[in-house]
Design a protein that fits this description.
The protein has 363 residues and is α+β, with helices and mostly antiparallel strands. The chain has helices at 82-106, 113-121, 134-166, 175-197, 201-221, 228-232, 242-259, 271-302, 307-312, 314-323, 329-348; strands at residues 5-9, 31-35, 38-42, 46-52, 58-64. The protein has one domain. It is 56% helix and 8% strand. The relative contact order is 0.19. Mean pLDDT is 79; it is low at 9-27, 119-134 and 349-359.
């Protein structure tokens, strides 16, 4: 089947230009995320979403990144503070990208020809019609899903190891030992969760798009033409990945929790109040840990060819063997389409009000 590219809104030049010059200083400002049947890429000023529609077209949308109130706060871009801003930025763009991908998958005009024929004939089909309230419903659904996922993560990866580790007190395990057990259980649960969900076919496809996104970014950072052939040869791992970021935050949390955070924070309080307080203290520490991890990930991206740096960030790279998979050529094509759209937009229409202090993106 011949594949076509449908551009919904794209401010740059042609999207099939493969040899795109980009200043090397800009490379670290390109990053992305994998979504359902697609990839979102972002550059300093633009973000693009490319999605493989059910009829096999690639649907592309590119938009200028508008500065939010948070994004205009200079102090939030200082080292060790910009990590939290980067997370919020990635979440915001990720939500928009996921909503766009869902709309493409449900668009009747983008279904396979046989399903469109069924719809026109009045027979049952899998096509879901759009409604006037779909946008609001979609936002609510995505919001509730993220809240539920956050609550699930806090219970499974924070509260459960904390409570379970306290059980070892009856065997005479010291407070520091229980802290170590808590950290170890958290890591085991996190890696186990990733390994389990990677076995689900739909999640595995998203992980393949994740691998395609990394390959595309690696091609750009290797100063090579953005072609399918060059992209295939790149590794699916990247030191500036969100997976590595999460692993660094987790390791910092474990080390700090073992060495510096007392098991009994307030003497005289009972076990339950102390564990509850420790849970919320651990939660609050995620923000400074995110800031530290962000700076470390930036360093890893800049010195990615250093053997020492690669050794230090080996746990994050190893975890990417779970959260990425070798992509198919069709998936690499989608990632390249999104990345080239961002590069073209940056090359052709740089806005005048750009803040050059924009932090690097997580790949």
């Amino acid at each position: 089947m011949q594949k076509r590219l449908r551009v919904l809104r794209e401010p740059g030049k042609s999207t099939d230009r493969y040899n795109v010059p980009v200043p090397k200083g800009e490379y670290l400002q390109y990053g992305g995320q994998a979504i359902v049947e697609g990839v979102m890429m972002r550059s300093p000023r633009y973000f693009s979403v490319a999605v493989r529609a059910p009829n096999q077209e690639i649907v592309l949308q590119t938009e200028h990144i508008e500065k939010t109130w948070l994004g205009r706060q200079k102090w939030l871009k200082l080292p060790f503070l910009r990590g939290s801003l980067g997370i919020l930025d990635a979440m915001s763009l990720g939500i928009r990208a996921m909503k766009f991908a869902a709309q493409i998958q449900l668009d009747p005009a983008l279904q396979p020809a046989e399903e469109q024929t069924l719809a026109l004939s009045g027979k049952d089909s899998k096509i879901v019609s759009k409604s006037s309230g779909q946008g609001a419903i979609g936002n609510i659904a995505i919001g509730l899903t993220m809240v539920g996922a956050l609550a699930f993560g806090l219970i499974i990866f924070k509260a459960l190891p904390l409570v379970a580790s306290e059980w070892f007190k009856r065997f005479g395990v010291s407070p520091m030992g229980r802290n170590g057990i808590q950290g170890g259980l958290g890591i085991i649960l996190f890696l186990g969760y990733l390994a389990v969900i990677s076995r689900f076919p739909d999640i595995h496809r998203v992980f393949k798009y994740h691998g395609a996104e990394h390959k595309a970014i690696n091609t750009l950072e290797a100063d090579q033409d953005l072609t399918l052939e060059n992209c295939k040869l790149q590794t699916r791992l990247h030191p500036r990945c969100g997976t590595s970021f999460a692993i660094v935050v987790l390791i910092l949390d474990v080390l700090f929790g073992i060495i510096f955070l007392p098991r009994e924070l307030v003497h005289g309080w009972g076990t339950v109040p102390n564990l509850t307080l420790r849970f919320f203290v651990n939660l609050a520490l995620m923000f400074p840990f995110a800031g530290i991890a962000y700076e470390m990930i930036r360093m890893a991206g800049k010195f990615r060819h250093s053997g020492v740096v690669n050794a230090l960030f080996a746990p994050g790279l190893a975890t990417q063997l779970i959260t990425t998979a070798e992509p198919d050529p069709d998936q690499i094509e989608v990632a390249l389409t999104a990345l080239k759209a961002c590069v073209d937009a940056e090359d052709d229409k740089p806005p005048a009000d750009v803040d050059d202090s924009l932090q690097e993106s997580i790949a």
